[in-house]
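--- STAGE predict ---
source: upstream dedup step, 1 unique chain passed
mode: sequence only
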Amino acid sequence: MRRAAMVLATLPLLAGCAKPETPPEIYAAYCARCHGEAGKGNPRSMKLYPNLDLVASPMVRRGDRALVRERIAKGYGPMPGFSRRLPPQQIDALVDYTFELHRKAGE
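--- STAGE serialize ---
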């Protein structure tokens, strides 16, 4: 009985450590810091890394899903690869979400 009470007492603590599941949560957890919430890049970093703007990215504009997926999985320049942190289905969800950001921006 005491053990069950201890487990139940720790559940609220564990709830704050949940892994991101949905594409917006995954993007917020792994991408938004540099690419910005709307995919237009973090303004403080844009002068140094203009490729942070996903909305204006040539590969996103032309719909190059394979290249976007490769960059997320393997990394590019200062961006780390996420193939060791995220399963393939979450990487695919990030690709879809990247194109969704582009569509939302109306670019």
